[in-house]
Design brief:
By secondary structure, the protein is mostly helical. The chain has helices spanning 21-25, 42-65, 77-89, 92-124, 126-140, 148-155, 159-183, 187-195, 200-211, 213-234, 243-252, 256-284, 287-290.
Length: 297
Amino acid sequence: MSEGTSTEEPPPANPPGDAPDTAHHTAGLVAPRPPVHRARSRAYSLTVRALGPVLLLVLWWASSATGLLTPDVLASPAQVVGAVGELWGNGQLPDALATSLTRSGLGLVVGLAAGLTLGITTGFTRLGDELLDSSLQTLRTIPFLSLVPLFMVWFGINETAKILLIAVATTFPMYVSTTGGVRNTDRKLVEAMRSFGLGRLAIVRQVVLPGALPSLLAGLRLSMTLSVIALIAAEEINATEGIGYLMSQAQSYARTDVLAVCILVYGLLGLTADVLVRGLERVLMPWRTAGPGGGAR
C-alpha cells in the first residue's frame, strides 16, 4: 500500500443501531386529526339563540323590580304587557299594525322591483352599466332620511310620500346585490347558452338569476331590514295612523309603556323579515345547510 493513502473507510449512512433520520425530524409531531362537525339539533340551536333576549328580559325585569328603572324612564315588563292588552283590546294596535305593514309592504315591493330591474340592466349590459351605474352609485350615497323634507314638498303628507320613501330606502341594497351577483355569473356559461340560441331574456331567467341567487337573497335581507327602518322615518311625516302615530301619542302623554310596545313591534317586524329570508334560503339553496358545517349557521 503506497505511502499517503488513507486506510480509513467512510462511516455507513445509517450505522447499525441508529434510528433513521426521519424519526429524528418527526419527533414530537402529532398525527393530524380531521375536524369533526357535530350536528346540532334544532331545539339546541333555538335555545342558544333565545339566551340573549331572555337575558335582556331578566335584566329589564330585575332593574324595574329593584327601582333602578323607574316608570318615567322605562316601564316594567308587566306594565308593557298590560299596555299590549289595552291597545289590543280597544283595537288601536291591530289597526296601527295593519296600516304600518301595508306601508312597509308596498314600499318594499316597489323598491325590490326597481332594484332588481336596475341591477340586471347594469350588471348584464355594458350600455346600461355606462349609462346608469355612476348616477345610481351617487344617489346611493345620499341618506334617505335627508329626502323626507323634499318628499313632503313634492307629495305632501299623504301615503304616497311615505311609501316612496320606503321604496327609495330599499332600492339601493337590492340594486348593489343584484349588480354584483349578475356580474359574477360565469361568462362562459352565458356564451354557451347563446350558442344554443337562447335569447337575452331567457338567459337572464334561466342562467343569470339562478347564478346570482345568493346575492339576491342577501339584497332581499338588507332591503327588508331597511324597510322597517324607513317605516319609522316615514311615519314621522304627520301620520294619523300606524305604529308611528301611536308613538307620537304616547310621547305626548309620557306613556313609556306604550312607547316600549311600539319599539318592540318594530323590532319584531325586523326579526320576522330576517326569519322569512332565512326560510327562503333553506328552500331555494338547501346545499348551504346540508353540507359539512351547515348546522353551524
